[in-house]
Amino acid sequence: MTTNPKTAHPTPPFEGQGGIAPSGSTAEMDPKPDHGETSYKGSGRLEGRAAIITGADSGIGRAVALAFAREGADVLISYLEQHEDAAETARLVEGAGRRAVTAPGDVSQQEHCRSLVDRAVQEFGKLDILVNNAAFQRTHQDLAEISAEEWDKTFRINIYSMFYLCQAAVPHMKPGSTIVNTTSINAKDPSPQLLAYATTKGAIANFTAGLAQLLAEKGIRVNAVAPGPIWTPLIPSTMPEEKVREFGKQTPLKRPGQPAELAAAYVLLASGESSYITGAVIPVTGGRPML
């Protein structure tokens, strides 16, 4: 049975989504995001592997954690402060019969990134997959609104953390291990209202391409997924209500993507099925081109 992608998930307008706290919470969203809870079926593609996923409490990170678990991987769930959301992700991972380790903390700090890798190795005995997914964004209409502190915070969370985590993780990774980074359509088609965020996403795409070449000799592959507009807590908690109301309508499919619609791309890049793919960016954008 085939499904029309234009009507497979909720379409805008999305009403009453203003005033959500900047930290964001899945429980506050209407409609609720789909993480693949009832739809994702695993087939052992990551059997016995161990993964770290940052920003795994909600949104894309939760969908990837759920998919990885149903494919057979144990997961360290890295997140900042949404303990209830992280507990739900852990419940989904454990419901798939895999181990879940929750690890709160700030990935903008190098010592915390090192501790995440050490914890994963201690808990699982190895590290096969690193998914750098945590992100921070704020919306501004004027350059003068962006403080130096916010610019620095955006870079530290979005791109510095990837450097810190990769540097800590690579010594523990064997040939066949994989790193998957989350970039964005903003890497090629930047939203001016998301200047700091979009700039970091361009840096992530470049970092991915360079690191893939650097680690090829070690047999470690590095790739990225570039989401378009995806319905996650980051959206209603960081965008004006009028933007949220029509979120995703600008795509050819006329709707935002759901986190579950990203999961298969991460699974592909983490699995041996993509053994000749490295330095690549997979767009999941609802039809918006990345030129």
Number of strand elements: 7
CATH topology (fold) name: Rossmann fold
Order of helices and strands: EHEHEHEHEHEHHHE
The amount of helix comes to 25-40%
Apparent shape: globular
Write out the CATH superfamily name. NAD(P)-binding Rossmann-like Domain
Structural class: alpha/beta
Q: Averaging pLDDT over every residue, what do you get?
A: 95
Distance between the termini: 32 Å
Give keywords:
291 residues, alpha/beta, Rossmann fold, 7-stranded parallel β-sheet, 12% strand
3D architecture notes:
The chain is α/β, with parallel strands linked by helices. It has one domain (42-284): NAD(P)-binding Rossmann-like Domain (Rossmann fold, 3-Layer(aba) Sandwich). Helix content is 36%, strand content 12%. The chain has eight helices and seven strands. The chain has a seven-stranded parallel sheet with strand order 3-2-1-4-5-6-7, with helices on both faces. Helix 2 (83-95) links the parallel strand 2 and strand 3 (100-104). Helix 1 (59-70) runs parallel beside helix 2 (83-95), helix 1 packs across helix 8 and helix 4 (148-169) packs parallel to helix 5. The model has no long low-confidence stretch (mean pLDDT 95).
Give the topology, please.
Elements: E1 50-54, H1 59-70, E2 74-79, H2 83-95, E3 100-104, H3 110-124, E4 129-132, H4 148-169, E5 178-182, H5 195-215, E6 221-227, H6 234-238, H7 241-245, H8 260-270, E7 281-284
Helix pairs in contact: 1-2, 1-8, 3-4, 4-5
Describe the structure in brief:
The protein is an alpha/beta fold and 291 residues long. The chain has a single domain (42-284), classed as NAD(P)-binding Rossmann-like Domain (Rossmann fold), CATH 3.40.50.720. Helices cover 36% and strands 12% of the residues.
